[in-house]
Input
Amino acid sequence: MPLDESDELTGRVLDDRYRLMAYQTHAQASVNYLAHDLETGDHVSIKVFGASISEDLEFSRRLVVDTTKAALVSHRCVERVYDWGRFQESAYVVVEHYPGVTLRSFLAAGYTLNPAQVVKLGVELASGLEALHGNGICHGDISPSNVILGLDTSSKLSAVYLGNALRAAEAGRLEIVGTGVDDRSQEFLAPETSRGLSSPESDVYSLAMTLRVAAEEGSTTNEAADAAARPKISKRQDLGQAQDILESALDPDPDVRCDAKSLTKGLIDAAASFVKPPPVAIPESLASPLLAANRSQQRVLAEAAEFDQVRWRPMWKVGAAALGLLMLLSAATAWAVSSVRPQGVSAHLVDQYTGRTIGEVRAIADSVAWILDEDQVRTDELPSGIVIAQRPEAGSRLAEGAMLIVEVASGPRLRMTPLVIGLSTEAASARLATKGFEVDLVQPLYDETIAAGEVMKLMIDGETELGGSLREPGTRAVLVVSGGPVPRTVPQLIGLDQESAEEALNALQLSSARTLSYEVSDSVLEGLVLRQSLTPGLLVERGSTVSLTLSAGPDRREVPDMRGLTVLEAEQRLVEVGLKLGDVAGEGELVQATEPPAGTMLAPDSAVLLWVLSD
Output
């Protein structure tokens, strides 16, 4: 979304829940809006990212992961993350509405922090960073641009989910075409992470660099690059013990550098030598009208938290009183002007239109010459065409030609497509059903690396869906799941020797049984595969085992040495070895020789001649 079109979204409703009330600022490839959460009634801030970076796969993946993690962190010095989604071609993130200004704006305007305020700021931010690291989150882009000085006198780390997503995009295809970010604070990055994702150690370095810039007397963010070139924080006697812990946090060696917990403790110890500083006063020139409108309420909260430690300068009170008087006068003037109607223009009583059909309200508006502005809002509570809200309220009077604004139910709320890639088929189907989707088909697809049953892709209307887009309830989805490895075709192994057969099986990621069996064969040479347990051509799973039977060669029986045996004894011996008695030559009683001679190998049941010559 081009920045010059950013204000066109004001008044739109995202995800049937977040009404964009006012354009605020733009930074880090996003446009920031103040919004109204129609579900909770709270004010929130919404960051809408440009279409180009929103469509980057690596950016989207990292943004979803880090936003999901950040939503689990609840710390008073860390910007709360509530939700994320997609609107048209743009991704958006919903965070808490925290009135204040960035430390960068504060310093760039020429305002400064005294040493005690720097230490207090450091304690708050370091404790927030410790909470992030404890939840497995690395900020990735701590700098004055991402530190908010709040109207409630505290401070927060902001954009905790964004730095690594931007770096992931830069490492991909957007490294060439750019991410649309021109204000990244490269000078605050640790030496070891000038490129790549962040680490806890690099976050500590970036925070210490931010505090160093805040501690520089008369410094601005334009001087940050020069400050980054100096090896150590400028020696300021009034920083006390904070000097040592900040130098430890800025050590160029990440293995020596202190962690967030040590930085917090060190700054707390250093704070003991300071008188509690007065709250940082946000100048009126830096506060937007919306922030100024919230200032009185924020100050009441601040006074309740700070008790008698909060001290405001008298001049500030005079200025605040003057501003308050000016606002009252402006409001009175606006009311007076709005109450004046041209002569001859009639006004009509506004009735209660909520709960009526839009057709009825249209007829009423036509009858009294009102201009009807219809805002379509999705809801699960009312059928389509029913008026949900109206402006002005019932009991008001509205002149002819004036505008009556109504919100009309346009159907059930859209459902955000959940992330299901990597889940089992059962878990993915359950998650889709919970979100109001229907699983139309589970389509298996063979894959050599992804486990069988794991979801590889979600398809809706024939297109791949990563998750996060809004769909009509009841949308039918197709799950593409891994069918496991491609089935293997059992090869022909008969006639191969053992080594060749095992090589053929290994090539297909099949295996042979450890125990081999042998059988005699007159037709297959000894040592060759005579038989295999799985039929050639059969489809089997990867890793299946095939048992091999090898040929022991033809069956042969050895003619025994029977010299000195009687004919009857010799015959029994031949039967024992699988041979039979042939002719008997001679008139003697004892065997003197055989034909063929002893040791000869014969086929089973072959006849052997006995020589029993007389002396």
